[in-house]
């Protein structure tokens, strides 16, 4: 400043004009210096550092630091340092300039740390453990404290008071703060419980009817869990709702390698009958039944002989039924099916009769958990069951349709015409 003032005086400037002009020149010089330093930092140094990291770095975390622009944000400190250094050239305004610079540097550092936390989270999710132990919720809590502390430092610097005074005043506002951050606190506790108990992970298929969620978990944060439904819509669920409410997690099915089939066909009761010799001979030719028929005939014959059963009456003793043989056929068909998991339950069971017939339920697991493949396997199995049922003298129950009623009316009309 003294040098500029003397230079202006030598050029013929005197009085207050010299002071104002010297201030203006110094301010313009500082501004140009800041612009130049910013250009050098971002235009040259950062480009060289970025190029070196992208071309020579063997670790991936360096790339995440670049992607989140941590170094770029740090570069904003350079002009601030220059301004602080030259603030002593303005004795009357040094205090205000220094205060403004400190506030600016605090804000810059807050955003630098925010970007660093984001980079840490992105680096962490590249590891497999992130699916079972996500840290995004914890990082969000750290961010809340970071911005809170940063705000306190900014305010304390502006008012010229110690940060401890503001911190002591927060105690009186704790009830209000608890109300404001209620969801965040509930989410934090829920996140800890979800992680500790391994209740849900990113990538899990969960079903939560109350919130209309049925799909894969794509994000677990402090306050929300995002689920991408099968129709590609996104459902957002409060994190604490996964603790307070019930939900279904299909991870066990996915890990087991088998997906359950549990579906029944309903047999018309009036089509159930004892097997005739002709039917047994026919069934004996079916590959999945020949061993069963031979074994069952020997077992029934032995039982009837040992107990002196009079088989001239059909209800006496034991005999094979068409529904029993049909059930044995489906059991053998399921056991030989290439897409049914051999290490899991394979069972065909008859349930209690209902008004729609007798349910014959297939209970088995496919060896492919992919939804589309699973549905295809299940459909193929029941296509076959429905198609072969008539070969066993059985009818699948179906409520009368318009076609059935029309056929019945036509039959009655033809009978009336014949009688007439």
From TrEMBL:
Annotated compartments: Membrane
Q: Gene3D superfamilies this protein is in?
A: 2.30.30.60
Indicate where this protein is primarily found. Answer: membrane
Task: Locate the coiled-coil region(s) and give their ranges.
Answer: none
Where do the TM regions start and end?
A: 20-40, 77-96, 102-120, 141-159, 165-181
One Pfam entry name = MS_channel_2nd
Task: Write out the entry's keywords from A to Z.
Answer: Membrane, Transmembrane, Transmembrane helix
Occurrences of domain Mechanosensitive ion channel MscS (ranges): 183-251
Query: Which InterPro entries does the entry link to?
Result: LSM_dom_sf (IPR010920), MscS_beta-dom_sf (IPR023408), MscS_channel_2nd (IPR006685), YbdG (IPR030192)
Note the PANTHER family from the entry. Answer: MINICONDUCTANCE MECHANOSENSITIVE CHANNEL YBDG
In its UniProt entry, what is this protein called?
Miniconductance mechanosensitive channel YbdG
According to its UniProt entry, this protein's organism is Paenibacillus konkukensis
Give the gene symbol.
ybdG
């Amino acid at each position: 400043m003294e040098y500029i003032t003397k230079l202006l005086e030598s050029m013929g400037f005197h009085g207050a004009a010299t002071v104002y002009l010297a201030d203006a020149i110094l301010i313009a010089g500082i501004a140009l210096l800041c612009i130049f330093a910013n250009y050098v930092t971002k235009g040259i140094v950062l480009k060289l550092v970025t190029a070196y990291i992208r071309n020579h770095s063997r670790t991936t975390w360096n790339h995440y630091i670049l992607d989140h622009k941590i170094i770029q944000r740090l570069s904003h400190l350079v002009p601030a340092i220059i301004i602080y250094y030259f603030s002593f050239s303005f004795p009357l305004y040094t205090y205000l300039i220094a205060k403004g610079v400190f506030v600016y540097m605090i804000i810059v550092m807050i955003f630098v740390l925010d970007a660093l936390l984001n980079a840490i989270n992105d680096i962490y999710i590249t590891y497999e453990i992130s699916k079972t132990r996500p840290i995004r919720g914890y990082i969000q809590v750290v961010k809340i404290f970071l911005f809170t502390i940063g705000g306190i430092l900014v305010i304390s610097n502006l008012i010229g008071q110690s940060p401890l005074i503001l911190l002591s005043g927060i105690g009186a506002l704790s009830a209000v703060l608890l109300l404001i951050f209620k969801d965040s606190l509930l989410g934090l506790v829920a996140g800890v419980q979800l992680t500790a108990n391994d209740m849900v992970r990113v990538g899990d298929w969960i079903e939560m009817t109350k919130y209309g969620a049925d799909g894969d978990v794509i994000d677990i944060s402090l306050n929300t869990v995002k689920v991408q439904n099968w129709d590609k819509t996104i459902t957002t669920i409060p994190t604490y709702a996964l603790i307070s409410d019930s939900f279904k997690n299909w991870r066990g099915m996915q890990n087991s390698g088998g997906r359950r089939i549990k579906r029944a066909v309903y047999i018309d009761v009036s089509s159930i009958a004892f097997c005739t010799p002709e039917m047994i001979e026919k069934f004996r030719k079916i590959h999945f039944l020949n061993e069963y028929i031979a074994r069952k005939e020997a077992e029934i014959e032995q039982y009837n002989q040992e107990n002196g059963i009079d088989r001239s009456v059909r209800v006496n003793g034991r005999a094979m039924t068409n529904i029993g043989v049909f059930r044995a056929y489906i059991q053998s068909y399921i056991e030989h099916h290439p897409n049914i998991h051999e290490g899991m339950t394979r069972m065909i069971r008859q349930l209690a009769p209902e008004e729609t017939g007798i349910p014959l339920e297939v209970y088995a697991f496919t060896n492919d958990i992919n939804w589309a493949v699973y549905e295809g396997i299940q459909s193929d199995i029941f296509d076959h069951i429905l198609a072969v049922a008539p070969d066993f003298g059985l009818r699948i129950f179906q409520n009368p349709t318009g076609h059935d009623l029309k056929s019945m009316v036509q039959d009655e009309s033809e009978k009336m015409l014949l009688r007439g």
